[in-house]
Amino acid sequence: MLNEEIIFAAFHAACFDGQEIPRDQQRFAACVEQGKANIVTIANELESLLLKLAVSLKTLYGLLRENEQRFPVVVKDIQAQLAALYGTGFVSQTSLHWLRQYPRYAQAALVRVDKRIGDGDRDSAVMAEIAGFWQEWQALQAEAQEYPQEILNELEAFRHMIEEYRVSCFAQQLKTIAPVSAKRLQKQLAKVKAALHNS
Question: For residue 1, is pLDDT > 70?
Answer without folding.
Answer: no
